C-alpha cells in the first residue's frame, strides 16, 4: 500500500452564483462566479492507493458506499489515475463536518479535499491552480474551495482556462455568515439537474448571464473597498435572480420552503430596525445571512428565538485547502 494522504477543505458560499454549465463533461460553467470560503463547514478526506484492492473502497461519515453511490468518486479517481502513474484502486475515507446536502454545498468541500488527497497520494504534485482545475471535474463549486477567503472562479472556455483565483485570501474585515438550517434533508432536485434544466428551459437564462457579469463588476471593487452595503445588496439580488431561474424553468421548481419565506421576512425586519444584513441561498431552503461581526449576537438571538438555537451556525471567512500529515 502507498502512503495515505489526508486533506481538509472548507466549503464556500457563492455571493455571485454558478448556475449552469457550458460543458457538462468537463464542468465548464456558463459564467464566472465569486464565493467566500467558510471556516465552520469542512471535509477531511484520506486517500491511499492499494494494490491489494479489487475496487475503489469509499466511506463517507463512517458508512461504506455502494458502487452506485460511489460512482462520482470512482470516476474522479479514474481521472487521477489517468494523470498519474497509479493503476491500483484506492481506499477513500471522508468525514463531512457540514450538514450533507442541506444546501450548504458539501460537494464543494468534498471534491476539493478529494482532489488534494487523491492527487498527492497518487504521487502528483499539483499547484493550487491545477488542484482547482482537478476539483472542478468533481463538482463545479469545489473549484473555488481550494482557496480561502473571497475567491473568483474564472469560467474560461476549456479544461486549462477554467479555474479559481483568490481575490483576498486572508480577510481582514470583521464580517460573518450566519447559516440558518431550515431543513437538513437531501434536496429533491439536485443542483446538477436543476441548473441544466434552467439552462435548457428558462427564457431568462440570457439575462442571467448579463446579471452575473454586472454583479461581478460591482461586487469585486466593493469587497476590496469593504463596502458592506454594495456587497450585501449585490449578493441578495444575485441569489433571488438565480432562484428566478428555477421558477421560470419548465417544469418549474423551487428550493424554497415556507420557512424560507418567513426567514427572508425576518432579515428584512432586522434591516428595517437598523441591523444591516443580507441573505443568500443555494440549492436548498436554508438561508446564509451576511452581516458585520458587531451584529452577529443580535441576529443570532432573533433567529434562535424564531427557529431554534440548534439551527443557527455562525461562520467566519475560512482558509484554503490544508494537508494534514
Ligand atoms: C454555487 N451552487 O455557485 C451554486 C449556487 C448552488 C447554488 O455550485 O453539478 O454541486 O457538481 O457542478 O457545484 C452547487 O452545484 O454542481 C452550486 P455540479 P454543484 O455555489
UniProtKB/TrEMBL annotation:
Coiled coil: none
Residues of the signal peptide: none
EC number: 4.1.1.33
Enzyme's top EC category: lyase
This protein's record includes keyword ATP-binding: yes
Family note: Belongs to the diphosphomevalonate decarboxylase family.
Domain Diphosphomevalonate decarboxylase-like N-terminal per the UniProt entry, residue ranges: 9-164
Organism: Levilactobacillus tujiorum
Domain of life, per lineage: Bacteria
Domain annotation Mvd1 C-terminal: ranges: 178-310
This protein's UniProt keywords: ATP-binding, Lipid biosynthesis, Lipid metabolism, Lyase, Nucleotide-binding
Pfam families the record matches: MDD_C (PF18376), MVD-like_N (PF22700)
Gene it is expressed from: mvaD
One GO MF term attached to the UniProt entry: diphosphomevalonate decarboxylase activity
Protein name: diphosphomevalonate decarboxylase
InterPro entries reported in the protein's UniProt record: GHMP_kinase_C_sf, Mev_decarb, Mev_diP_decarb, MVD-like_N, Mvd1_C, Ribosomal_Su5_D2-typ_SF, Ribsml_uS5_D2-typ_fold_subgr
Amino acid at each position: 500500500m502507498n502512503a495515505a494522504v489526508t486533506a481538509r477543505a472548507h466549503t464556500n458560499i457563492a455571493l455571485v452564483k454558478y448556475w449552469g454549465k457550458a460543458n457538462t463533461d468537463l464542468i465548464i460553467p456558463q459564467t464566472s462566479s465569486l464565493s467566500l470560503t467558510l471556516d465552520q463547514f469542512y471535509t477531511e478526506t484520506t486517500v491511499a492507493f492499494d494494490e491489494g484492492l479489487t475496487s475503489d473502497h469509499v466511506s463517507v461519515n463512517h458508512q461504506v458506499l455502494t458502487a452506485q453511490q460511489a460512482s462520482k468518486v470512482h470516476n474522479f479517481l479514474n481521472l487521477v489515475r489517468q494523470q498519474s502513474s497509479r493503476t491500483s484502486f484506492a481506499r477513500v475515507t471522508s468525514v463531512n463536518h457540514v450538514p450533507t446536502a442541506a444546501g450548504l454545498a458539501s460537494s464543494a468541500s468534498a471534491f476539493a479535499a478529494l482532489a488534494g488527497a487523491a492527487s498527492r497520494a497518487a504521487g502528483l504534485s499539483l499547484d493550487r491552480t491545477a488542484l482547482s482545475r482537478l476539483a472542478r471535474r468533481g463538482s463545479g463549486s469545489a473549484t473555488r474551495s481550494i482557496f480561502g477567503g473571497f475567491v473568483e472562479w474564472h469560467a474560461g472556455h476549456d479544461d486549462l482556462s477554467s479555474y479559481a483565483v483568490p481575490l483576498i485570501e486572508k480577510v481582514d474585515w470583521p464580517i460573518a455568515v450566519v447559516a440558518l438550517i431550515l431543513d437538513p434533508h437531501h434536496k429533491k432536485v439536485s443542483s446538477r439537474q436543476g441548473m441544466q434544466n434552467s439552462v435548457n428551459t428558462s427564457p431568462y437564462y440570457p439575462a442571467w448571464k448579463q446579471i452575473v457579469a454586472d454583479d461581478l463588476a460591482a461586487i469585486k471593487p466593493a469587497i476590496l473597498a469593504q463596502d458592506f452595503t454594495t456587497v450585501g445588496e449585490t449578493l441578495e439580488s444575485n441569489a433571488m435572480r438565480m432562484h428566478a431561474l428555477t421558477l421560470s424553468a419548465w417544469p418549474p421548481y423551487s428550493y424554497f420552503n415556507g420557512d424560507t419565506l418567513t426567514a427572508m421576512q425576518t432579515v428584512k425586519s432586522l434591516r428595517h430596525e437598523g441591523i444591516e444584513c443580507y441573505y443568500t441561498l443555494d440549492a436548498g431552503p436554508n438561508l446564509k445571512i451576511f452581516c458585520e461581526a458587531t451584529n452577529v449576537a443580535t441576529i443570532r438571538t432573533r433567529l434562535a428565538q424564531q427557529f431554534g438555537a440548534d439551527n443557527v451556525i455562525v461562520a467566519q471567512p475560512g482558509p484554503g485547502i490544508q494537508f494534514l500529515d
